[in-house]
Amino acid sequence: MTKKERFAFVLQYFEEHAPNAETELIYDNPYQLLVAVILSAQCTDKRVNMTTPAIFERYPDIYALSKATFEELFPYIRSISYPNNKTKHLIGMARMVVEDFGGEIPATVPELVTLPGVGRKTANVITSVVHQQPNMAVDTHVFRVSARIGLTTNAKTPLQTELQLLKYIPREKVYIAHHWLILHGRYICVARNPKCGECGLRPACRYYQQVIRKQQ
């Protein structure tokens, strides 16, 4: 199977079986999503969703968050991974959005990555989820799944993975393909002992064909 054929199979499968895939982070607006994505770095969406309601109640918008002090915000984030850094990032992000962007969450990757706590992955998430821009956020799930299936070849970094995926995924499908790959990695193609028996991508999966079938 050629790489083009592999991509076609995978995309068609997901279109049929997960047509409405979306982020599992709970949010109502771009401000809430940005806060949630910053908190989600090396932390589960489930934990973030347990944490954000109290934050949003106390800080309902970017202006309220921009006025927070470290001592006030930290207790809300204590249960999240790296709470010290994330508390500082959220306050710094909010202040910069207010001061430099008039209180509006930026809508482009170059602008977003200037904010504290926002790297390329986070910026890609915001722009693809909120604006459906053709930006591919590569987290550990996307990185692992893409390599296992054979969508990427010898990609050593998230950026290399991103560029290889963008080469073959139609622009109009990039924003949802991001969710397809994440959710597949979260529930089926897990890091240890992937659930190949439940996976409909077996005919196109390089890992299954080269490793699992030989073991059987």
Automatic annotation (TrEMBL):
<keyword id="KW-0326">Glycosidase</keyword>
<dbReference type="GO" id="GO:0006285">
    <property type="term" value="P:base-excision repair, AP site formation"/>
</dbReference>
<keyword id="KW-0456">Lyase</keyword>
<dbReference type="GO" id="GO:0019104">
    <property type="term" value="F:DNA N-glycosylase activity"/>
</dbReference>
<feature type="binding site">
    <location>
        <position position="196"/>
    </location>
    <ligand>
        <name>[4Fe-4S] cluster</name>
    </ligand>
</feature>
<keyword id="KW-0378">Hydrolase</keyword>
<dbReference type="InterPro" id="IPR011257">
    <property type="entry name" value="DNA_glycosylase"/>
</dbReference>
<dbReference type="InterPro" id="IPR023170">
    <property type="entry name" value="HhH_base_excis_C"/>
</dbReference>
<keyword id="KW-0408">Iron</keyword>
<keyword id="KW-0479">Metal-binding</keyword>
<comment type="function">
    <text>DNA repair enzyme that has both DNA N-glycosylase activity and AP-lyase activity. The DNA N-glycosylase activity releases various damaged pyrimidines from DNA by cleaving the N-glycosidic bond, leaving an AP (apurinic/apyrimidinic) site. The AP-lyase activity cleaves the phosphodiester bond 3' to the AP site by a beta-elimination, leaving a 3'-terminal unsaturated sugar and a product with a terminal 5'-phosphate.</text>
</comment>
<dbReference type="Pfam" id="PF00730">
    <property type="entry name" value="HhH-GPD"/>
</dbReference>
<dbReference type="InterPro" id="IPR003651">
    <property type="entry name" value="Endonuclease3_FeS-loop_motif"/>
</dbReference>
<dbReference type="Pfam" id="PF00633">
    <property type="entry name" value="HHH"/>
</dbReference>
<protein>
    <recommendedName>
        <fullName>Endonuclease III</fullName>
        <ecNumber>4.2.99.18</ecNumber>
    </recommendedName>
</protein>
<dbReference type="GO" id="GO:0051539">
    <property type="term" value="F:4 iron, 4 sulfur cluster binding"/>
</dbReference>
<keyword id="KW-0411">Iron-sulfur</keyword>
<dbReference type="GO" id="GO:0140078">
    <property type="term" value="F:class I DNA-(apurinic or apyrimidinic site) endonuclease activity"/>
</dbReference>
<dbReference type="GO" id="GO:0003677">
    <property type="term" value="F:DNA binding"/>
</dbReference>
<comment type="similarity">
    <text>Belongs to the Nth/MutY family.</text>
</comment>
<dbReference type="GO" id="GO:0046872">
    <property type="term" value="F:metal ion binding"/>
</dbReference>
<feature type="binding site">
    <location>
        <position position="205"/>
    </location>
    <ligand>
        <name>[4Fe-4S] cluster</name>
    </ligand>
</feature>
<feature type="domain" description="HhH-GPD">
    <location>
        <begin position="39"/>
        <end position="187"/>
    </location>
</feature>
<dbReference type="InterPro" id="IPR004035">
    <property type="entry name" value="Endouclease-III_FeS-bd_BS"/>
</dbReference>
<dbReference type="InterPro" id="IPR000445">
    <property type="entry name" value="HhH_motif"/>
</dbReference>
<keyword id="KW-0540">Nuclease</keyword>
<feature type="binding site">
    <location>
        <position position="199"/>
    </location>
    <ligand>
        <name>[4Fe-4S] cluster</name>
    </ligand>
</feature>
<dbReference type="InterPro" id="IPR005759">
    <property type="entry name" value="Nth"/>
</dbReference>
<keyword id="KW-0004">4Fe-4S</keyword>
<feature type="binding site">
    <location>
        <position position="189"/>
    </location>
    <ligand>
        <name>[4Fe-4S] cluster</name>
    </ligand>
</feature>
<dbReference type="InterPro" id="IPR003265">
    <property type="entry name" value="HhH-GPD_domain"/>
</dbReference>
<keyword id="KW-0227">DNA damage</keyword>
<keyword id="KW-0255">Endonuclease</keyword>
<keyword id="KW-0238">DNA-binding</keyword>
<keyword id="KW-0234">DNA repair</keyword>
